Amino acid sequence: MRIAEVRATTVTVPLEAPLRHSNGAHWGRFVRTLVELETEDGLVGVGEMGGGGQSAEAAVLSLKDYLLGHDPARTEALRFMLANPTASLYNNRTQLLAALEFACLDLLGKHTGLPVHALLGGAVRSEVEFASYLFFRYPAADGSGEVRTPDQLVAHAWDLKAAHGFRVHKVKGGVFDPGYEREAYRAVAEALDGDRFRYDPNGVLSPEQSIEFAAGIEDLANDYLEDPCLGLPGLRRVRERTRIPLATNTVVVDFAQLATNVLAPAVDVVLLDTTFWGGIRPCVKAAGVCETFGLGVAVHSSGELGVQLATMLHLGAVVPNLTFAADAHYHHLRDDVIVGGKMPYRDGKIAVPDGPGLGVELDRDKVAEYAELYRELGPYPYDRDPGRPGWYPMVPNTDFADPSRAGRPEALAHEPF
Question: Where is the Mandelate racemase/muconate lactonizing enzyme C-terminal domain (predicted)?
Fold first, then answer.
């Protein structure tokens, strides 16, 4: 089995409302690049990656000469072929490698008739639990969906729990002053008493602010405090001064960083992202290291359509020490590009696909529809806030958004969602 063709298609898929985060926003839609690898005998494997609101088509297709003739079963060779550790100091292809590894594993599964989880050691669970992902949001184009106040955040959490059965809730912070966000976080935890909670300001607080924030929520049913500040030394200081477990998806994303955290613990939970780690297989390896040293693991979301969600489900299926609910942006999507549409949540969980490979197929009509929409709308700057022209965050940040400013920014006037 050899790769004979490489294709990449950028799509943009609408969200229920623009999602705000510490560095900017998703401007009402996701931009994702779908990757297809076709073998000489006509099998097609699919992958997916993001790109901060930008297309990654050119980057994927630039690797075509590396990939043609390659055996997709040789995923370990693929790692060094595309993302050699020294060469990656210059070309940083980790996310490209991940999307191509997804497609290779999908091909291998289709070739053998086995689901990817069977190729990775076999499933230990048939469904994966997810947390709700609560964002502060700008209103959609029709005026709906704004989340700016504690009351709106609580109502949004209740809506998601009623629709999908979530028992764990994650608040994405770093948008407003940490005192205001602590009030909103406490409001959610008190309203949904009996559930569990986690808070993630994407590293924009100082260690001192992080310690203060942690002290103000220690009495709640917290899973963990995720990336309150940036960097292992700062996280280590925070960890020494709180009883809440700390988690990261930003500063433990490779094995050297994982080793550093084992030798001098700064976080208790490693959030494994199939994109940031360069594929599903590295995440499985990292989970094994975490199991050995008693570190918790969870499945992280970097924003996904159904293809990447499938990679997250297969990862969650095979990791024995997965004791936390996974993250997903998925419930914010209005649609998907896979056959059958969006995968359903039941009691806060999604069933692991059991068909060959990743167990999902591209809906060609949907791909064509959302590829055309991308050509019409183009990219958006993920790392800019449409409501704050010229603004960008410092780290630690001191210039937070004003929660009294309601409504949809002028910069979103030409965005349809």
Answer: 151-245
